[in-house]
């Protein structure tokens, strides 16, 4: 509950302590009074402020000042996270203009921060259906379905594998800080001639814009070139350091707005000067702690990555052993079936050979009897021509029968020999099948434990106790110098990768250009495209107009 005597600083410190935030100089407590934004003053009692009379009074804890370079200035992870959430909301609410191709890239980093590494088995089609990732202006500008947008976001999301949440959020901020409207507070003003203009206040200085063009300032005053800023009632005065340059005067709509402008000018100017001096002892300590924490997290990620790799290898080995066991079982089953078929064939051939051999013996016996009958007939005296003729016919028939019987006997004998040979081959095949089965049985004996419901890994695979021991040793053996070299190497790799970033953005822009509905382009879209075609960026534009 809010104490009656509490000053703004008491309430602000309570929020910072609750969040564990130490980089307090970027933030403030914002409230709205009569459609005008105001910030709680640290040295003034909370209830003495001109706050709304309705209860409860709402204060928003927000970034009041922005860094020039997020990666160099934002030390704590909580600070980075708060900036990420605020900037993402401003982009989605279209308070910061973001071109379509950059919106897709930023969305992919937001997905990486929320979901971790892309896994096609988990992150299936439609997993981003409920997420708000792109400004409505971008979605309306193209004839593209939600599925088409998701496909393009996921393609980039898959490339961010290995980035932790804080790294993905920092990549988001590094891209967002180059957007023209990032960190700029705009105020409606009039110059001495009464011309309506916009004043922009940000980390780099003061900028004057046409009301219809918030992207490109007409003139800029960097903080290091401003000698004095003051206001009297509604008139505001900017005195440049170079006395040859005219003093710039303008009027704002309300006195309250002038106070706010002056607050933002003083705060941004102080931070601008602080960045160009040596870090305070507190900031040095925070940066040292952040480096140690980053090193610890990096080593923890490496340890987890190694454990994951070992686990995946163990699972692959187990799967391979299970597959091999199934293969051996199938081979054993096939060998058993082949053996049974061989035994059945051998039995049939043996039976057939015996029958054929008996038939051959019987035919041979009949042939012998026929020969004897022929000899007996020849020896018999023939008394008449008729008997002789009949006898000759009988002799001829007997000879034909004997010849036929001899041929049949010879054929049956050959068939018996062939069957004996087939039987021998069948028995040889049976012997080989038995030997094959014996080999398979002896091979599969070592995989016998795999038949249980949870297959055991072979004993030669390293256990996780052993993994833990080796990791503990690696952890002790790792020195900060080597880790620093690794971090430096990552920076170099990022620099090389960032060269291709603009090419990737241009590729996506070209790819979706055909689906653009030109009639839906906003004034800011047109202005951005004109700036891009001229090669103008946020920083070189400010240099030109300073």
TrEMBL record:
Residues 484-525 form a coiled coil. Pfam families: ERM_C (PF00769), ERM_helical (PF20492), FERM_C (PF09380), FERM_M (PF00373), FERM_N (PF09379). The keyword Coiled coil applies. GO terms for cellular component: plasma membrane. Residues 1-276 form the FERM domain. It is a peripheral membrane protein. SUPFAM superfamilies: Moesin tail domain (SSF48678), PH domain-like (SSF50729), Second domain of FERM (SSF47031), Ubiquitin-like (SSF54236). A 1,2-diacyl-sn-glycero-3-phospho-(1D-myo-inositol) binds at residues 41-44, 259. It comes from the Eukaryota. PANTHER family: MERLIN/MOESIN/EZRIN/RADIXIN (PTHR23281). Keywords: Cell membrane, Coiled coil, Membrane. Residues 412-431 are annotated as: Disordered. It is found in: Cell membrane. One of its GO terms (molecular function) is actin binding. The keyword Membrane applies. InterPro entries: Band_41_domain, ERM, ERM_C_dom, ERM_FERM_C, ERM_helical, Ez/rad/moesin-like, FERM/acyl-CoA-bd_prot_sf, FERM_2. CDD domains: FERM_B-lobe, FERM_C_ERM. This is MERL protein.
